[in-house]
Amino acid sequence: MTQDEVVAEFRAAGALLEGHFILSSGLRSPVFLQKMFIFQDPVRTERLCKALAQKAEAAFGRIDYVVSPAVGGIVPGYETARHLGAKAVFVEREGGTFQLRRGFTIPPEARVLMVEDIVTTGLSSRECLASIAEHTTNVVGAACLIDRSNGKADLGVTLVSLARLDIPAYPADALPPELAALPPIKPGSRGIQGAKA
């Protein structure tokens, strides 16, 4: 699947929104990728995650476990794991930090891939990877549907994505005038379950 095809999937699903958005990182952007509009369509989700699984397998080889951060990473993590023939587990916030809960375990010898939905600064991904590191040192890499940092986010592991976009993001005190003139909307999920805003 090409980058243009991935972006076309987001546009067709109404998942590429324009306005003034407060991202989960706290940065502001004129573009928001509402991946839940993708994930409400199982056929579209399967198409994208199958392509992501193929790209991840080509980059990293066999994957035994896919670990994703809740909430946004659960659906793509599960669906990517399905196409990899891997187990799918997720970490969720407890006391503000990601934890492996619900009785999930990761065997120390398992080859682990961290799967995200969208990467902007990489903060959630790094927090997820830190949580995984408490259970195994065998993380082979990370994968996401869209890397909106255009390859600039440093996760500490190799990141593969279906698309790399260069979408601007600004600190709240350094907005361009056209963005500052619009009312901000905070559509993300980071504030859920006691997360740090």
TrEMBL record:
SUPFAM superfamilies reported in the protein's UniProt record: PRTase-like
GO molecular function: magnesium ion binding; orotate phosphoribosyltransferase activity
GO BP annotations listed: 'de novo' UMP biosynthetic process; pyrimidine nucleobase biosynthetic process
Cofactor(s) listed: Mg(2+)
Domain Phosphoribosyltransferase: 47-152
Residues the record lists as binding 5-phospho-alpha-D-ribose 1-diphosphate: E116, D117, I118, V119, T120, T121, G122, L123, S124
Keywords: Glycosyltransferase, Magnesium, Pyrimidine biosynthesis, Transferase
PANTHER family documented for this protein: OROTATE PHOSPHORIBOSYLTRANSFERASE, URIDINE 5'-MONOPHOSPHATE SYNTHASE
Assembly behavior: Homodimer.
Biological role: Catalyzes the transfer of a ribosyl phosphate group from 5-phosphoribose 1-diphosphate to orotate, leading to the formation of orotidine monophosphate (OMP).
Protein family: Belongs to the purine/pyrimidine phosphoribosyltransferase family. PyrE subfamily.
The protein, known as: Orotate phosphoribosyltransferase
